[in-house]
Amino acid sequence: MPQVRDLSIIDVPSGCVLTSCDISAGFGEKIHDSLAVAPEVTGQLTLRVALLEMIATGAEVVAVSDVVGAEMEPTGRRVIAGIKNELKKANLEHIELNGSTEENIEVTATSVGVLVTGFATRAALKITNVHQAAVLFAFGKPFVGEEVLQNMDQMPDYELVKRLIANSAVLEVVPVGSKGMSYEAHLLAETNDCVFIPDETLTVAKMKKTAGPASVILAAVKANVSARFWEKFPSAKRLGDIRRKEDLSWEK
């Protein structure tokens, strides 16, 4: 299992080293940026995606690196401030940052890349963990661009993801980004040798809309306790069922 979704997984004698990464380009205050955003926000939201991807696996974050496609003063300094603020939100302010900026040429559009490194034992990982019938729930709404800036307080937070990971009813947690809920739901099912059966009430447009910087979190929940889970997490929205392929073959 060297790669799952946007994660790379490396087996080591005591467990697994995992890496996740993300990039934002054209979001900033430079002349050729496509969307005017404070560099602090660019750093914050770029880290959010890779950080949620890592935390959702059940792994412990051990290192974060940033690559800023801009000068240190003032853009790089402000991006790094945003990254540190996001680490604080996730209760990871103890993590030391490593990174680099561009000092050789003048840059006219902002880009920020991040790499998150984590560690976990095999038993702790919630990856390819759907071995029974499940119900897929979503938290949050798909936002992109200006919508993100207007609804940042509505996006799922780190505390929610940690609660989901700690819940015994939850088999797997997946942040949704630019490819939308439909893509991630089907990929989650396929990765587990399952099939995703969406509820008929869902619209194609909503399911395919980009969720920007992980404005939606998916949770695959054991079907036999999904009603109890929904009572505990009433903000969850049911997307459909995840069924094992062999179960569907048996029904035919």
Any chance you could write out the topology, listing elements then pairs?
Layout: E1 3-4, E2 7-12, E3 15-25, E4 27-28, E5 35-36, H1 39-55, E6 60-68, H2 72-89, E7 97-101, E8 111-120, E9 134-140, H3 146-150, H4 158-166, E10 170-176, H5 180-191, E11 194-198, H6 204-208, E12 216-222, H7 226-232, E13 237-244, H8 245-251
Parallel strand pairs: 4-5, 6-7
Antiparallel strand pairs: 1-2, 2-3, 3-8, 6-8, 9-12, 9-13, 10-12, 11-13
Helix pairs in contact: 1-2
Keywords for this structure?
single chain; 252 residues; alpha+beta; 60s Ribosomal Protein L30, Chain: A; Phosphoribosyl-aminoimidazole Synthetase, Chain A, domain 2; six-stranded mixed sheet; five-stranded antiparallel sheet; 13 strands; 32% helix; 32% strand; globular; PurM-like N-terminal domain-containing protein; PurM-like_N
